[in-house]
Design goal:
The structure holds two protein chains of two kinds.
Chain A lengths: L1 E3 L2 E5 L10 E12 L2 E13 L4 E5 L6 H9 L6 E6 L2 E2 L7 E5 L10 H12 L5 H14 L15 H14 L4 E5 L7 H18 L2 E5 L3 H7 L2 E5 L7 E6 L8 H6 L1 H17 L7
Chain B lengths: L4 E11 L5 E12 L4 E5 L6 H9 L6 E6 L2 E2 L7 E4 L11 H12 L5 H14 L15 H14 L4 E5 L7 H17 L3 E6 L2 H7 L2 E5 L7 E6 L8 H5 L4 H21 L15 E6 L6 H8 L2 H4 L4 E6 L3 H9 L5 E5 L2 H7 L9 E2 L3 E4 L2 E6 H5 L5 H10 L6 E4 L5 H12 L9 E4 L5 H6 L5 E5 L2 H7 L3 E6 H4 L4 E8 H6 L1 H18 L5 H9 L8 H5 L33 H13 L5 E2 L2 H8 L2 H10 L12 E2 L5 E2 L4 H7 L8 E2 L13
Parallel strand pairs in B: 3-8, 3-9, 6-7, 7-8, 11-12, 11-13, 17-18, 17-19, 22-25
Antiparallel strand pairs in B: 1-2, 1-4, 4-5, 9-10, 13-21, 14-21, 15-21, 16-19, 16-20, 23-24
Helix pairs in contact in B: 2-3, 2-4, 3-4, 9-20, 9-21, 20-25, 23-26
The chains are: A alpha/beta, B alpha/beta.
Chain lengths: ~280, ~675
């Protein structure tokens, strides 16, 4: 751990806590291509505590989504291992739920039915009334009790994303994986959903891994911000400790002197040390 | 100078299906210089794209018009190119063909070879040589947007219009394009108008940021001049001492608009208890000396005087306080001592808004903090500081205060000038809200500041600064914070105003009883008030004051003074000193009718009536000459002689100020 005044930065050579809740242990992902192997991720190490909120930031092509796909179990590492409570992750499961930017709701089902579907497939033997109660509770949790019978196309982007979060949480996952969930929303809705997510996370005590491109979003939400180096062969560059006291409130966070220091530190990492141009 | 683009009193109205109409824009008036980069910022639905479409000629305004180089815009044309968020490229054409299509259409008169050269040159400009033969389907979002920028610029428009050009891109890809756009705009001296809702983007790119209020009937709420030098570079901009101050000013504007959207209807006055209005919204800035307001609320003094529904609104800066009171969003506010006078005189070229004060809420409480770097260079006193400035003539030393009309600014300037340091020539003075002082000092973007507590103590505890002087070294018992209300408000609600002053007088008395201070410090530490560590709030307020210069902390019994020694009297002589200093530094003219101005602003009648009703003495201190630390005597009978005697000063304007009939200000 290196200390720069108030800023705590963990460098990528720090030893990995092998017994943590979630461990990404020396993970590499390589795809064969006609012109030779393409290394997307090269030796990523990260350990996450139970109940922690971790944000991951990096330029496009740094393999952040690939990394989360290996936590959700959609992909397997070429080398290394991802473990949840010491068990290697080999396939997707309801203990790790993913929320994507593009909602991925079934358009012919209502909000309620979309949530019920997930519950029903994980707990087919539970009584119907109980499953319906779970669905209703989770719609209420995201403030959508009124919209239960609406179909996705009758909902705004923010409402759709709320349904997705409710659907994911209804299955009581141990890890909630969010892949840039608010990227498609307008700034006001985005701020509202950030605040709501913060509240839900506080109540549910779920472990969260979230990809974002927005430094301010990460500073508001996360305990730690994982900053990735540029691809190919991306790895964890540095991890920034975000120590604002909780419960957090946006305006209080923004008025803390630490906020500016952290923000400038992250900006410097992304725009100077890991400057990136998307020209191929 | 004639403006390049003139948006002349534009209204836009859309018919609604029910036969009524929706007024989207109301009276938009804006002039844009050639080569200027202007951003239009606001929430969705504020009409910013509507305005851009009118400038583009894609829509006609319901009233008013747009002139480009003196000619009215009536239809779209190649002199105004628009870049939209969704790229709008033809999917079956390659990058090169998409650009060529526009060039061939608009520049028919040029030989084919020349047109081809223009296309190739613009492919290079946006660095897409490698992708020139690809169709849009094979490009990333960022690359597609670069093609539309190249296409727009290839036909050499006079004006480039950008409608949320990077809105569909993720924040990091966006940054790459912003960097490229800055570079292109600078190299080609483009005049640009960009619609955005990204605050950082607006600050990075613009010369001016025009902020629109929410619709319906959107109008220009505020215009921010962005002072960063060009050519600009992202990290240098972020590290500018004013970056976060400007950023939070814009965020604050947007948040106010967001709140207004949610609130919609402002609560009407509730009359009760013999008062015209018992529901008040009172602004304060999180500082230790907001104590009287917090005490009046928490200890029931507002309630006791019939003010049953008082909300204290925590404001991020003094500028927000001034805006809140002049715009009638706030009924009243804690203000820096010079603010009512400065607003009444129309500081900063604004229309004068008469604001009055019937009670001084606190005296003293400020300090001048310098960076640890200066301490390490041996600076211990003002003479040392002068030496340090002389020793580093190439280095610009920047100091911050909290508002131009604050005692912090006036006393810091007075202090510097007393040692022959010209605050505008030998140093650079800037304004930063109190909560941002410590971070800005720490980042090395300023060399010192003058502010109230807990911010000096915060800097000392972080070991980044030391207090070179505090108020008890400079002017013991100077007026610091006052209650400010608009004069028309005071006239409309006279009994409410009196009740408010009475409640605050009692709260001030409560604050000066040291037995109450431990409890008050705990109240102040709460997040809804100051929200700082208790230890920082207690410094000077209750505990010995540590200057951070290695000497043992001192007990300063008058560091925060709320009631003793006629603290609360808004005496006119002190107001006159403030007027001379505002004029000395060119902040306002000096009013030839100063007696009238002081009589209107410093409401001795309200103070006297409130004091008598509470059985407090209603005395005004004797009208006699007084002096600050340097011994220069200020004689309230000869303010102009005093101004003339000052060595370091700006050009002093002496004007008759008619606050009831403000002269119409004609822009030069």
């Amino acid at each position: 751990m290196q200390t720069l005044s108030n800023i705590n930065v963990q460098l990528n050579d720090a030893p990995l806590d092998q017994d943590a809740f979630l461990v990404i242990d020396n993970v590499s992902k390589v795809y064969p291509t006609p012109s030779g192997p393409h290394v997307v991720l090269d030796g990523v190490n990260l350990s996450v505590r139970e109940g922690e909120f971790v944000c991951i930031i990096g330029h496009s092509g740094c393999g952040k989504s690939t990394l989360l796909d290996m936590v959700s179990g959609f992909r397997q590492p070429t080398e290394g291992q991802v473990r949840l409570q010491s068990e290697p992750i080999v396939k997707p499961g309801p203990d790790r739920m993913v929320v994507f930017q593009n909602y991925s709701l079934l358009p012919w089902f209502t909000a309620f039915e979309n949530i019920y579907l997930g519950i029903d497939s994980v707990w087919p033997d539970k009584p119907k009334a109980e499953k319906e109660a779970i669905a209703r509770d989770h719609l209420a949790l995201v403030g959508l009790a009124e919209a239960a019978d609406k179909k996705p196309k009758q909902l705004s982007g923010g409402m759709k994303q709320r349904v997705c979060i409710a659907r994911a949480l209804a299955l009581r996952p141990q890890v909630l994986i969010l892949d840039e969930p608010f990227g498609a929303l307008d700034p006001i809705t985005r701020e509202e959903l950030q605040e709501e997510l913060l509240k839900i996370w506080t109540e549910h005590q779920v472990t969260v891994l979230m990809i974002t491109h927005d430094i301010d979003e990460a500073l508001l939400l996360a305990d730690r911000l994982v900053m990735m180096t540029n691809g190919p062969a991306a790895k964890v560059g540095e991890i920034l400790e975000i120590s604002f006291p909780r419960p957090r409130n946006r305006s209080r966070v923004m008025e803390s002197p630490l906020y500016y220091e952290l923000r400038n530190y992250a900006l410097d990492f992304l725009y100077r040390r890991c400057a990136h141009d998307d020209v191929e | 100078m004639t403006a390049f683009v003139v948006i002349d009193h534009v209204d836009q109205v859309f018919p609604l299906p029910n036969g009524q109409s929706y007024i989207a824009l109301k009276n938009i008036n804006l002039e844009i210089r050639k080569g200027e980069f202007v951003s239009l910022l606001g929430h969705s639905g504020c009409g910013k794209s509507t305005l851009l479409n009118i400038i583009a000629g894609l829509a006609q305004p319901a009233a008013g018009g747009v002139l480009l180089e003196g000619r009215q815009v009536t239809k779209p044309g190649p002199d105004r190119m628009v870049v939209f968020q969704n790229y709008s490229l033809l999917p079956w054409l390659t990058v090169r063909q998409n650009i060529a299509l526009a060039v061939d259409e608009v520049m028919k008169h040029l030989p084919a070879q020349e047109r081809r050269d223009i296309v190739e040159q613009h492919i290079d400009m946006v660095k897409l040589r490698q992708a020139a033969d690809k169709t849009p389907g094979k490009l990333s979002g960022g690359m597609k947007q670069r093609v539309s920028i190249a296409r727009a610029l290839a036909i050499r428009p006079k004006l480039l219009l950008l409608d949320e050009p990077f809105g569909a891109l993720d924040a990091l890809t966006r940054s790459g394009l912003q960097d490229q756009l800055i570079q292109i705009a600078q190299e080609h001296h483009l005049t640009c108008i960009m619609v955005t809702h990204d605050v950082d983007e607006a600050l990075l790119l613009s010369d001016r940021i025009v902020m629109l209020t929410n619709g319906p009937e959107s109008y220009i709420g505020q215009i921010i001049d962005v002072p960063f030098e060009r050519p600009r570079e992202r990290m240098a901009v972020v590290n500018h001492p004013n970056y976060y101050a400007l950023r939070s000013e814009i965020v604050y504007f947007l948040n106010q608009q967001k709140k207004a959207k949610q609130r919609k209807v402002k609560q009407a006055a509730i009359a009760r208890n013999g008062l015209e209005k018992i529901n008040l919204e009172i602004g304060f800035v999180p500082l230790t000396d907001c104590a009287p307001l917090v005490v009046a609320k928490e200890m029931g003094f507002f309630q006791k005087h019939g003010l049953e529904e008082v909300t204290l609104s925590r404001e991020p800066s003094w500028k927000a306080i001034a805006e809140g009171v002049t715009s009638k969003r706030l009924d009243a506010a804690q203000m820096v001592a010079g603010m009512p006078l400065a607003l009444t005189l129309g500081m900063g070229g604004k229309v004068p808004t008469p604001v009055v004060t019937g009670v001084v809420l606190s005296r003293n409480g400020n300090a001048i903090t310098l960076s640890k770097r200066l301490y390490d260079e041996g600076v211990r006193n003002l003479a040392d500081l002068k030496g340090a400035l002389a020793a580093a003539p190439d280095r610009v030393h920047t100091m911050a205060t909290v508002h131009p009309a604050s005692m912090h600014n006036l006393i810091l300037r007075y202090w510097l000038a007393s040692a022959d340091i010209d605050p505008d020539q030998d140093m650079h003075l800037t304004v930063i809200p109190p909560p941002q002082m410590v971070a800005t000092l720490k980042a090395g973007n300023i060399d010192g500041f003058c502010a109230g507590e807990p911010w000096n103590t915060h800097a000392i505890k972080e070991n980044i600064g030391f207090v070179i002087a505090h108020d008890l070294d400079l002017w013991i018992g100077h007026p610091e914070k006052v209650l400010g209300v608009r004069e028309d408000w005071a006239n409309q609600y006279p009994q409410t105003h009196l009740a408010l002053v009475k409640a605050l007088l009692e709260a001030c008395e409560y604050c000066d009883d040291r037995r109450n201070r431990p409890q008050i410090a705990e109240l102040l530490a709460k997040p809804e008030y100051v929200g700082a560590e208790l230890e920082y709030i207690r410094a000077g307020f209750l505990d010995p004051y540590d200057r951070g210069d290695g000497k043992p902390p001192e007990q300063l019994l008058r560091f925060n003074q709320f009631h003793i020694d006629i603290t609360n009297c808004p005496s006119r002589a002190e107001g006159l000193w403030i007027l001379t200093q505002l004029a000395r530094w060119g902040i306002t003219p000096f009013p030839r009718n100063w007696i009238e101005i002081l009589d209107r602003v410093r409401r001795m009648d309200v103070y006297g009536e409130a004091a008598r009703q509470l059985d407090f003495p209603d005395l005004e201190p004797n009208r006699e000459p007084f002096a600050l630390f340097d011994g220069t005597v200020f004689d309230p009978d000869d303010p102009i002689g005093y101004l003339n005697s000052l060595r370091i000063k700006r050009e002093i304007r002496i004007e008759e100020i008619d606050i009831d009939h403000p002269a119409i200000v004609v822009a030069a």
